[in-house]
Please model this.
Amino acid sequence: MPVLSLEQLNSFLSEHFPQGDQYGVLEEVGPGSARMRLSVSDQHLRPGGTVSGPVMMGLADVAVYAALLTRIGAVPLAVTSNLNISFLRKPKACADLVAEARMLKVGRSLGVGEVYVYSGDGAEPVAQATITYAIPR
Model:
C-alpha cells in the first residue's frame, strides 16, 4: 500500500503544485510507482510537428515526483537534483503521452527513479529518464 493514495496525491499536488496540471494528470499510483497522462495539444509542439523535449522532461519529472511521494509522504520540498533523459523516438503529435515511473531506490536524503514515456498506445517508449530527488531532512 502506498503512503499516499491517488486521491491524496492529487489533493497534495493541487494545493502545493497547482501549475503541475500543465505537465499532465496523475492516473494511477502504487508503492513507489506512478502513471501520468498528458493530452498533447498545439502548445506542446515544436517546429516540425513533434512534441518538444521540455514537455516530455516535465511530464517525466512530475511522474517521478509522484512516485517518490508514494514512498515518503507529502514532502513539498523534495526537489529534482539530477535528470538524465534520452529521446528515443518521435512521439505522435496527435496522441497522448503516458509516463510510467517507478522508484529504483529511496534513501534518507536521495530518491532515484526511472520513467518511460510512451506516445498513445505505442509499445515502444519515446523517451526514458533517470531522475534523482533530494529529500529534505
